[in-house]
Amino acid sequence: MAVPSSGEVSLLKLMNELSDDDYDAGEDHNDVSLSDLSDGTVSSINTDNDAADRPDGSAPHAMSEFYSYDHDV
């Protein structure tokens, strides 16, 4: 399941999308960093998503950059 296009987004759920391809996986991850999620450290950002639907990799990072991101698109 992809990241929703609006509403609340959590670091844990973003980590689930990047590591398990499932935003709602319910996995338990420790030491989640927005910077690591955004710059490809956790997993390479899938550039098959439209540019507006993926993080740009540049600081400052924002959780809103992940709206509609789908890691396994």
Note down, in words, how this protein is organized.
- This protein is mainly alpha-helical and 73 residues long.
- The chain has one domain (11-66).
- It is 21% helix and 0% strand.
- The protein is built from 2 helices and no strands.
- The protein is globular, with a radius of gyration of 11 Å.
- It starts with 10 loop residues before the first helix and ends in a 35-residue tail after the last helix.
- The mean pLDDT is 93.
Question: Descriptors for this entry?
Answer:
2 helices, 73 residues, globular, mainly alpha
Topology, please?
Blueprint: H1 11-20, H2 34-38
How many distinct domains?
Answer: 1
Oligomeric nature of the chains: single chain
Helix content: 10-25%
Distance between the termini: 10 Å
Number of strands: 0
**Order of helices and strands, N to C?**
HH
Mean pLDDT: 93
| Radius of gyration using CA atoms only | 11 Å
The low-pLDDT segments are: none
